[in-house]
Design brief:
four-stranded mixed beta sheet; 4 helices; Flavocytochrome B2, Chain A, domain 1; alpha+beta; 31% helix; 16% strand; 99 residues
Length: 99
């Protein structure tokens, strides 16, 4: 399935009847099984309903880094992002892509 960024925002954990999604490099993962981390009040709740690629690459929780842009990331940061992507692939199912 394809989701716009606006549609993805609906899966931020604020509606308990909907799953929680986080995107990495445009791929959307269902992280509902880790509600304690990604749900409201969780330590990574700022990533829910968004593409968190840049923030994960930079190991940042700053709101301005929670976006899909990979512009200007170092080789090391891209390696960190690829490691996160592998962890997500091992733990969570892919449910779609960001359009």
């Amino acid at each position: 399935m394809e989701f716009t960024e606006q549609q993805l925002k609906e899966f931020d954990g604020s509606n308990p009847s909907k799953p929680i999604y986080v995107a990495i490099k445009g791929r959307i993962f269902d992280v509902s099984s880790a509600k304690n981390f990604y749900g409201p009040g969780g330590s990574y709740c700022m990533f829910a309903g968004k593409d968190a690629s840049r923030a994960l690459a930079k190991m940042s929780k700053n709101e301005e880094d929670v976006c899909a842009s990979l512009d200007g990331l170092s080789e090391k940061e891209m390696g960190v992002l690829n490691d996160w992507e592998k962890k997500f692939e091992a733990k969570y199912s892919v449910v779609g892509r960001v359009a």
